[in-house]
Amino acid sequence: MRMVIATCSVDYDGRLTAHLPLAKRLLLVKADGSVLVHSDGGSYKPLNWMSPPCAMAEVEPDEAEAAEGVVAVWVVQHAKSEDRLRVRIHEVHDDVRHDLGVDPGLVKDGVEAHLQRLLAEQIEVLGEGWTLTRREYQTPIGPVDILCRDATGQSVAVEIKRRGEIDGVEQLTRYLELMNRDPHLAPVTGVFAAQQIKPQARTLAEDRGIRCVVLDYAELKGLDDTTLRLF
Amino acid sequence: MRMVIATCSVDYDGRLTAHLPLAKRLLLVKADGSVLVHSDGGSYKPLNWMSPPCAMAEVEPDEAEAAEGVVAVWVVQHAKSEDRLRVRIHEVHDDVRHDLGVDPGLVKDGVEAHLQRLLAEQIEVLGEGWTLTRREYQTPIGPVDILCRDATGQSVAVEIKRRGEIDGVEQLTRYLELMNRDPHLAPVTGVFAAQQIKPQARTLAEDRGIRCVVLDYAELKGLDDTTLRLF
DNA sequence: CTCTGGATCTCGATG
DNA sequence: CATCGAGGTCCAGAG
């Protein structure tokens, strides 16, 4: 990892054309040759960058550039496309390198897939006597998160989101319309399950006869742990 | 901008739970208090981060942490949610600060909006005698990029993309179905215009009677400059 | 390998 | 303020 604080201008040419006027910025050169240009604000997205695979070459400024005060030019060329980043450096304020080694990587938890697995394993959370038919039940317009049966044996399609918004209700509605045309499945009712359900989404869902269930992730996980402990 | 090279472990708790095992990494603290944790590879996305508005506090490690070799703990708390990032530092290899000032920001060019403007101004590129009706023609399911008329006066809906893929053809198809139900407009034909059109998208479009046009951005811009020079 | 859908998405435009 | 769409999206999982 090379970290350079420099007064520079930057030009990207590739899928679009973009220009950064002269200013003091942080330039990061990673071990794989990728380059990030960061300012002192904004989110995690750099102002400009080149993703790997790519190669960085430091070249001498041409006459016109030298006349403008450019002391070095970085040309970062993507290996598999015509994407190119050009950094014109006017002044270097700092330039240090550190060997970081390979990162062991991120461990994630709590994503939608995990919620789906937990709820599928504990489908009785939705009602006593409910049974799982299957996860990722395929329909011609995509997979329904969970298909199950209520205590009376009637089919129920469950759509799971971390944050329940209107588009999730629309998605479930499309599945229900389709599945209710299938005489082997119909009648199919719907459950919209999410860690958090926005008021608009709840109103729309309930207006369409879809039941809304707020999932407590910690509780589901706790039940899961308890279940595991019993075996 | 504070740049710290440290051996650390990181825990994020908020919209999900994520953990980074002990390793040597770059920690960036921006002027607005946001924190990025970068490894020496991957893309521009940090391994972990906290977006502004947030505040970073450096606290003493508790007894258990100290026993594990933690010398400092950073607690980064989001200002408007319960999102929290915890960085446990075992060793600091470097720690420097630089004042970068406010960045003048990015200047973009070549985006879809620009293509739309250029093509609207030079609609005759699609055919001699073609005339512009209007840009962003509103329909109940969204705006059509360009509505125009061919030399015979028949309406044509134009969908513009930088990269033409199947979803763009589907979008245009929906507009055409809707517009052809309107007796004042029908019959409406379609043009799918993009800088690059994928073979699958072209096949689908042509199968539906939609004409495909590959746009040359440099040429459109050149024609635009020429036009400007005439006035 | 390509394709698909989610994301701690980010970012900008628009009502 | 929220919503909507696009992204140099990135990213992981499935086919």
Automatic annotation (TrEMBL), chains A, B:
Q: Where in the cell is it found?
A: Cytoplasm
Q: Please state every residue range assigned to the domain named Endonuclease NucS N-terminal PH-like.
A: 2-104
Statement: the UniProt record of this protein carries the keyword Methyltransferase: no
The UniProt GO MF terms for this protein read: DNA binding; single-stranded DNA endodeoxyribonuclease activity
The UniProt entry, under InterPro entries, shows: Endonuclease_NucS, NucS_C, NucS_N, NucS_N_sf, tRNA_endonuc-like_dom_sf
Q: What are its E.C. numbers?
A: 3.1.-.-
Q: What are the residue boundaries of the Endonuclease NucS C-terminal domain, all occurrences included?
A: 111-230
Where is it found, in Gene Ontology cellular component terms? cytoplasm
Q: Keywords in UniProt for this one?
A: Cytoplasm, DNA-binding, Endonuclease, Hydrolase, Nuclease
Function of the molecule: Cleaves both 3' and 5' ssDNA extremities of branched DNA structures.
Tell me which family the UniProt entry assigns to this protein.
Belongs to the NucS endonuclease family.
HAMAP family in the cross-refs? NucS
Per its UniProt record, what NCBIfam families does this chain match? PRK03298.1
Recorded protein name is Endonuclease NucS
Q: Which organism is it from?
A: Nostocoides japonicum T1-X7
